[in-house]
Amino acid sequence: MKSYIPLLIFALIGVWSCVPKEDVLVGPVTANIRELAVQEQQLSDANTKFALKLFEQIVQRNPDNNLFISPYSVHQALSMTMNGNQGSVLEEFKALLEVEDLGLEEANQAAKDLTAFLLGLDPQVNLAIANAIWYKQEYQVQPPFKQTARDYYKAEIAPLDMWDPNSVNIINNWIAQQTHNLIRDMLDHIPSNAVMYLVNAIYFKADWTYNFPKANTKKEKFYPKPGQEVMVDMMSLGEPATFNFYQTSDYGYIEIPYSSGQFSMGILYGYDGNTEELTKRLTMDNLVLWREQVREWNVILKMPKFKFSHKIPNMADDLIALGLVTPFGFHSDNFTKLFSNPTDELKISRVIHEALIEVDEKGTEAAAATIVEVIERVSFPPSGPFTLVLDKPFVFFIQEKHSGAILFMGKLENPL
User: Residue 314 domain-assigned?
Assistant: First the structure.
């Protein structure tokens, strides 16, 4: 198999965007290409396999809706999380992330190297990948876990007052900053028994290699389903340009390049518009086939402008269906390499994911973020003073300590 990075997957399900500039690109610029190391290629393949199965799983829950995710962001967030585990739980993470053939340190090093390769690949593409970890300020994170997160994922690590309602803004503001304000107010609340947040944010912005002239954009028909039509802003190159293209009697595949052509938007289309059938064709073997057998064709391309976002409040059920089971239930084997101080049993309560994409005449802009929320079975009040506000109806009673007798009981619905 020839060396490649999962360009189509980034394009189809979550990583692409555009850098607005005054200069019009008329062809590819030079990219900083180097041969991938063996472990980088293994991780690249792992990312692709993970992306394919995650996308297929989520499509099943969203058969008729627009869908946009960043598998790379999810993979990064869960890869950081993986390092807090050992034994059978670690193996569940490795199986989900398709890195069973790599040792833990090898997987971390490959993640670091592949990310560095992507970030430095094309000077005309604005790609940013950032990680951060916040933990309960009363707890102590094990030094090896901290070191791994910093060395391999360049993660910012800081304590957080989980009882402070304003702490949610710290995480949301960080995500907004990393995604150029495209992803905002992603985290709705922090439960009192939360002990850690592991967050990835990714941003991509790039011009098309061949920009669509704005004057060519016209209202034209788009057919969401057989017998249905809507009017959309349809972009058109107006004249032929060279694209990598693969076609059969049932479907086609085209790569629409950005800048140097190292990044592209891969589009898989069918003549009947059946995306369920297209998703079934989106396999690792087919990806290899398409990439190896594409031919350069002169195409007058027309495609709609579009912009939408997609948020998954909790990917837990999807990840459980893909085999990551133990970490989503309280278990003594979970996160044994995370904290130095004793804790109650831990679990992942939520994996929140949000992504946004905008495609126009100049290029594509996209951003995504993933939040892994780890909680403790029980919640203890902080050791210092804290504020409790009884600002909703409550039940009360008067009792005798020694006998346990309750003398009076009542509830307050309205003090006035």
Answer: yes
